[in-house]
Design a protein that fits this description.
By secondary structure, the protein is mainly α. It has one domain. Helix 1 runs antiparallel to helix 3, helix 2 crosses helix 4 and helix 3 packs antiparallel against helix 4.
Length: about 130
């Protein structure tokens, strides 16, 4: 890969990243402002998986992180798949596996970070106390 090709791929990554970031952030903010928090899938996933206390979560800040994580994953997979020189069927297979692996990994890391910050449900607290 020569220098020109590298810069073109980096530019492609950044354009796709910015496009996905703006799109996902606007969608999440629209849902947040319309009080449709139950429809934000990433928030529901983290609350259920890591037993987070939704009352004390900084949801607005989390929406920014959700948009950042989602756009990074999508733009990375798109750029990586476009660089592969294999048949379309294998590209889709690799992209599908890579997409789900990165989603699981990044949201696992982010969820553990939130628990370490103290947003988890305290021990001894019952579910109906939320």
């Amino acid at each position: 890969m020569d220098t020109k090709e590298f810069w073109m791929n980096l530019l492609f990554f950044l354009v796709v990243f910015l496009l996905f970031f703006v799109l996902t952030y606007c969608m999440n903010m629209y849902k947040f402002k319309k009080k449709k928090r139950k429809k934000i899938g990433e928030l529901n996933y983290l609350v259920l998986k890591f037993r987070l206390d939704i009352k004390i979560l900084p949801v607005r800040k989390m929406l920014l992180w959700f948009s950042f994580i989602d756009s990074f994953i999508l733009s990375f997979v798109t750029t990586f798949i476009s660089l592969l020189d294999i048949s379309m069927l294998w590209r889709m297979t690799v992209g599908f596996v890579l997409l789900f692996a990165l989603i699981y990994a990044f949201y696992e890391i982010y969820g553990r970070h939130l628990v370490n910050k103290g947003y988890g449900i305290k021990k001894g607290m019952k579910k109906n106390e939320l």
